[in-house]
Amino acid sequence: MMRRDVTPDPELGAVLRRFDAPDPTADEQRRALKRRIEAAAAPLLAERRNGAWWEFAAVWARTLVPIGLATAVAAAAFIAWTARAGAGRGALTPVPAQDSLVGSVRRDPTSQHLLDAVVAPVLPHRN
Q: In which domain, by residue range, is 81 found?
């Protein structure tokens, strides 16, 4: 129904109700289906309720242990790689101007003020 059409058509409503009449057996069929599903699921649910937490962990151990080991190896390799790559520079060594923000910002009067504000603490003081 569109917003403008606020009056329902009684003839159309009667036809639709006739085709979509409530089935008196539908409720009983749904209840019977529910009982069959509950009866079939009862053994599975009972088995899950009686299990201990370590049984759940044991099931996942075959998957999670290799993933954990692979993650640990990858993290160790990354740490070793970054430590070796940064071995040439100390943590407090100033970065040359070519490697810092200076090379990536345009040279015009407004960007020069930005560069001075960003790079000034790293570069030696000029008089």
A: 53-90
